[in-house]
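Researcher: Re-running this chain for the archive, since the previous output was lost when a drive failed. Same request as before.
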Amino acid sequence: MKTPRLSGAGLGFRRDLLPELKAALNTGFPESIEFFELAPENWIDLGGRYARDLRLFTERFPFVCHGLSLSLGGPTPLDEVLLRKIKAFMAEHRISLYTEHLSYCSDHGHLYDLMPIPPTEAAVKHVAARIRRAQDILEQKIAIENASYYVAAPIAEMDEPTFIQAVLAEADCLLHLDVNNIYVNSVNFNFDPVDYLRRLQADVPAERIVYMHMAGHHRQAPDLIIDTHGAEVIDPVWQLLDTAYGLLGVHPTCLERDFNIPPLQELMPEVARIARIQSNHRQSIARAA
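Model: Regenerated structure tokens:
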């Protein structure tokens, strides 16, 4: 069976939304949702009703696997058992894209947070080797996501865009660009998010950028944002998405909402807004051709 093509705007697949999503299959499904994203760790070993519900949707929609716990930058051995489970899960549900955070979250046990990798030449070699091993096991390229963070690494030999580009080149992998994370880090560490995008445009081959995220956050102080995925997307992040499409091209983009999950009808305007911005850029490209 052919794997469905990934495009357009998507939504995080959350169990809280399952009753409404299942009802919508019979009453008229929102046109803006073209794909779903899930964390494979939350679904791999589930059976019974949840497994049946997942199959109901993977038979109808493209899905993306977005990992939470592979700890690509971690010091302990890569979890190859998990990777083999993910490979089987993706084959079973015809999922073509797996992404993970460019961070680490374990050291002889899970830390339950995403920690920044020191941007050094040694770290580039370390994380790239782990990415290559993951790709060997999965037999496909994976996409790495730029992570949000709150404390700068104590040692830094390069800035984040340079570090990302170096890892992409060394590992021969893909980029999953989280637009909200760029904005969060730009406030927390006082840099220009548009300049960040321009750096990626100049240094990262266009074909390596394959996927994007949008999300809301919590502003704890004027100079501190916490990346909660628990609120609506704010206007500056929408503007940054528009800029990202203009500089880097239009890519499948998922709305993340992990906490304070509202009814589906309250999420749909945000998914529809992603789709509308994508459409505007495609029309502009068509007019210029």
